[in-house]
Amino acid sequence: MAFGSGGKLAAEVSRAGGFGFMGLAFETPDQVKQELATARSILDVPADSTLPIGVGYIGWILDESEPKAKELISIAFEHRVRAIWLSHGDNLGKWVGYYRELVEKTGHHPLLAVQVSFPETAQVAIDDWKADIIVAQGIEAGGHGAAEGFPLLTLLPLILSKAGPNGPPIIAAGGIATGSQVAALLTLGASGAALGTRFLLSPESLYSDKQRQVILDAESPQSVRTLAFDEARGYHNWPKYVDGRAIRNATYDDFQKGDDINVIRQKYAAASETEDLDRVVVWAGAGVSAMNKVLPAKDIVQELHEECLSHLRGVNGLVKS
Questions:
Q1: Alpha-carbon dihedral of residues 139, 157, 309, 307, nearest 10 degrees?
Q2: Which segments of the protein form a coiled coil according to its record (predicted)?
Q3: Sheet holding 21-23: strands in order across?
Q4: N or C: which end of the chain has fewer CB within 10 A?
């Protein structure tokens, strides 16, 4: 969750019994070090011990500057994070290779999670990259993902069939808001679930109160897939199959109408100065209708856990009957 999850949120999720990730985009090395230090302080983990959070990297941003990319990945190893998450790149194999180099060099072996939206990519991640974890992202996911991919309930079984019974764990992602959904995905064969938007509604996220209110006020049909916000911000390097899912606003409407992109960019830049969320992007998944309150991250984890267990027990009762 670039721009959404830093060291504080990642640490609080892990402290509550989940596994937290901080997402990187255009942060400097010093900023990343500070976020990791924050997480270590919250979790009260000694400097020479594994830090039980993960760090997520966006492939095309890594490709922008190889020296910076290598430094950012190396920082995660230096801070002994428990997992690395790679997504959204045409050259992810290159960064998997660098990850392997660091494992060999440092002796530290964080788990490698690779996010995929298609069964074919999952096959490469499993067979060629030897990923420890596959994250199956359905088109319901907020933020960036496959523009013309599969709904999660279709994608998950397809990827499970690629992994086979002895393959890596498959984590389901995309539009998940409740423990009942997590339970359903576990019964389908997922080993776990990754939630993004739900945790943006925590005070520990990097979202502002105004952004959180937009999510609270939104209904699921307002969560739309589009290139509008990337075009408005001038980000053109996403893989061709990728767009983003966010809450519909005036930027989206103008883009859909075919307004001059330069005018859209000017309006967006002006709106960014005042956090005018009628134009500035609020990334959010299709599950927003099921999200109606702001809670601390630890309470979200607990709520998801309890609801998931309740539904799994209900399924068990059906089988026994």
A1: 20
A2: none
A3: 21-23, 51-58, 81-87, 111-116, 133-137, 170-173, 192-194
A4: C
Confidence class for position 318, pLDDT limits 50, 70, 90 = confident
Cβ atoms < 10 Å from Cβ of 155? 26
DSSP per residue, 262-273: HHHHHHHHHHHH
- The tally of CA atoms less than 13 A away on the side-chain side of residue 141 is 30
Let me know: does 206 contact 235? Beta carbons within 8 Å.
no
- Phi-psi region for residue 225, left (φ > 0), alpha (ψ -120 to 50) or beta? beta
pLDDT at 311: 94
For domain 7-207+296-320, give the CATH number.
3.20.20.70
CA distance 275 to 280: 7
Kind plus residue range of the DSSP H or E element containing 122: helix 119-127
- Dist CA 126 CA 113 (whole Å): 10
CA angle, residues 111, 205, 67, in degrees to nearest 5 = 50
Of 29, 56, 53, nearest to 41 by C-alpha is 53
Angle between helices 297-320 and 7-15 (to 10 degrees): 40
Where along the chain do its domains lie?
7-207+296-320, 210-274
Give the Cα separation of 81 and 1 in Å (integer): 17
Query: Three-state DSSP class for 172?
Result: strand
Distance, in Å, from the CA atom of 311 to the CA atom of 318, rounded to the nearest integer, reads 11
How many other CB atoms are found less than 10 A from the CB of residue 210? 12
**Is pLDDT above 70 for 125?**
yes
| Structure confidence by residue, pLDDT tens digits, 184-195 | 999 999 999 999
